[in-house]
Amino acid sequence: MEIVILAVVIAVVLVGAVSGLVIGGRRKKQLPPAERPSATPTITTPPAEPRVGDEAETPRDESRRTIEEVDLPTAEAPEAPPAEAEPAPAAPAVEVPEPTEGRLVRLRARLARSQNALGKGLLTLLSREHLDEDTWEEIEDTLLTADVGVVPTQELVERLRERVRVLGTRTPQELRTLLREELLKLIATDAQRAVKTDNGLETPAVVMVVGVNGTGKTTTTGKLARVLVADGKSVVLGAADTFRAAAADQLQTWGERVGARTVRGPEGGDPASIAFDAVKEGIAEHADVVLIDTAGRLHTKAGLMDELGKVKRVVEKQAPLDEVLLVLDATTGQNGLVQARVFAEVVNITGIVLTKLDGTAKGGIVVAVQRELGVPVKLIGLGEGPDDLAPFDPEAFVDALIGD
Where is this region: Disordered (predicted)? Predict the structure, then answer.
């Protein structure tokens, strides 16, 4: 009986052990609940590429083209090689200025209006059958309007009165001869009018050009260089006008045209220093003439006029100053005489250059300015051309005024 009970107990223990092993093996084969895959898998759609404006939507299915249908880009042309640097501009060709002889031949046409106002006006009045006081007053008015000046006008009228009274009957040719003689007396044909360019020394002749703003002073200096080169002179230019913008460039351009060298300095530099260097260079190069262009100055500015005197003194430390030419605008009339007086007080004016003495000028200023300064008109500007500067010839001038 005990043996049966023991056998039953052993059997029960064996069954329980086997059952425990089976259940434990199954548990090890199963995944934990968190790691088990769900019955229906979830598929996540990849995000579409971001788009802008009207295209901000999911891309749509589009038809695809084959490679044969696609236009392939053509090969780009190779870039052109960089252009070569442009060569530096060649120096301007040296011009041959027009000879000074014969330039006044063009004066008759340029003085057409002046001729009507002065020369022909006087001939018309003197041709009247009866020369009463009213006629002589008209003659005086004609002379004054032409800027002859009060004193020269009175002298001319008195001489004309006397000669007409003695002459009696007056033919047109006799009147023209009479008027020509009296005008030549006023202009003074015995004056020395040649610009002094030969001082007989080893140093070059030094010519300083002065004048107020707007009279054409720098242009006149350049044209004078052409006149001198045409006469066979070697010239050095001094650009002492350092106050006006581009004045030195303008003068240098004039010089390059005829092969004359220009000595210049910085804009706003000391004019006296530049004038000094120009004369020094002229001596070193054995030049015939040194032309110095000074700054255009208002004659009412005492400080500027004093500086002009300084330029003169500094230049004379290198070489004597042979000429001081005052440039006046012939169209300014009596105002030009006021300028002339002030300049004559600062520097010793030796000659006058009258510019713009064409059809717009009245002509009589030639007489007035010579009387005022006691120095002759040496050069006249006839126009805007590079060779429209000529030595003043009194006889040619008077013939142009009164006509043939």
Answer: 27-99
171 is in an annotated binding site: no
- Report d(CA 356, CA 110) in Å as an integer: 10
Yes or no: say if 148 and 157 are a contact pair by the CB < 8 Å rule.
no
In order of 115, 282, 360, the CA distances from 170 in angstroms are 21, 58, 31
In angstroms, the CA 144 to CA 147 distance is 5
Q: Is 297 annotated as ligand-binding?
A: yes
Instruction: State if pTM tops 0.85.
Output: no
pLDDT 10s digits, 87-121: 655 556 777 777 776 666 666 666 655 555 677 78
- Ligand-binding annotation for 358, yes or no, is yes
User: What sign results for the dihedral spanned by CA atoms 353, 209, 249, 98?
Assistant: positive
Which two three-digit tokens encode residue 299? 């004659």
The annotation status of 213 as a binding-site residue, yes or no, is: yes
Task: Please tell me whether 303 is known to bind a ligand.
Answer: no
What dihedral do alpha carbons 99, 101, 104, 109 form, nearest 10°?
-60
